[in-house]
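Troubleshooting entry. The earlier prediction with pyridoxal-5'-phosphate gave an output that would not parse, so I re-checked the input for stray whitespace and re-submitted. Clean input:
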Amino acid sequence: MTQFNKHMDAPLRTIDPEIDGLIGKELDRQRTHIELIASESFVPRALMEEMGSILTNKYAEGYPHKKYYGGCEFVEQIEEIAIERAKTLFGADHANVQPHSGSTANQCAYFTAMNPGDTMLAMRLDQGGHLSHGHPLNFTGRMYRIVAYGVNRETERIDYDDVANLAREHRPKVIVAGASAYPRKIDFARFRAIADEVGAILVTDMAHIAGLVAGGAHDSPVPHSQFVTSTTHKTLCGPRGAFVLCTEEYAKDLDRTVFPGIQGGPILQMVAAKATCFKLAAEPAFKEYARQVVRNAATLSGALQDRGFRIVSGGTDNHLMLLDVRPKSITGKIAEKILGEAGITTNKNAIPFDPEKPMVTSGLRLGTAAVTARGMGVDQMGEIADAIDRVLSAPEDETVRKNARAKMAELASSFPLYANL
Ligand code: PLP
């Protein structure tokens, strides 16, 4: 028996009160603030049980029935269940549930579909794309020749003619559909037609909209794409993690790319939570949730427009919207800060053709996945729009922020979060 053994059964508060205290403060922040970050939501408590479970102790490199470790008889059943549920939920030929994050999932799809030096056509980062779609400092920008498409200056929607022209000119090996900050429906059939015309492979990154796709509130990219990548922690309300779907023809290559190509062992507590996330997302209640997320986003966007704000592209079809804050003579950076002081958590975000730097921006990205997971509906969207309007219309006025903060805390307390934690 060593001194270390005594830690095995001791609670966190006795072993590391400093971290325990900060987790407690973060729980309080999540409970009392209005969460409008479009890439976040709340996970059901059962999934947190899985994430904090003894599955963390197990190594299981390889795939079910072909593991490189002993003792995998239970964890491989968990992985099989997760794979089958992902395939059924999204109607895919094949699923790999091992990728640790969305960026890694993209890496897995790209490594399977392309060689270093090949050309990839993806959405411009300053108009909605993600870092892993070609940022110069990201592995994508360093390994591939990136060509970027954007939105039309007038409509602020994806310019499919531009995508087609760029594809014809550059003959990319891969075309990426999907975005981090695009409020409109994406026409996957159109993307596939463009890809087919130039012999490219279509990789759709549905990280943001996966929950809407699962719940039938957004068209599915699966029938149109050779690869579909996604995180599980955004609108899907699952654990921090990811997965890749692909057509049968790429199944073996994809699995080889994930392991041993890119990762070692899967993080099994996350795989278990992904399995339960897919189970919940297949239930009728999730359809209702997904529809309400979209309804809440449309209501919030409309309520902000009624108060004189400009919403990029004139509205939203999904869970997020981009608010142009220039009419209030402030920047996205200031807007994020003062809303934070008022108990509303958002993130600054470039709007299309933004004259400001990425760390400043002229916009805010707002999403409704988290507030909807808490149970809020259209009435609450009106209250939130009102608070946003008051705070952003009086950026110098601390009293306005203080009053808004009290109102938002009261609103939050009417929708209790993790009451038994
Ligand atoms: N893809 C898209 C479209 C995203 O929005 C994000 C994250 O915001 C990612 C991929 C990356 O996910 P992760 O942070 O898990 O690497």
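This one parsed fine. The mean pLDDT is 97.
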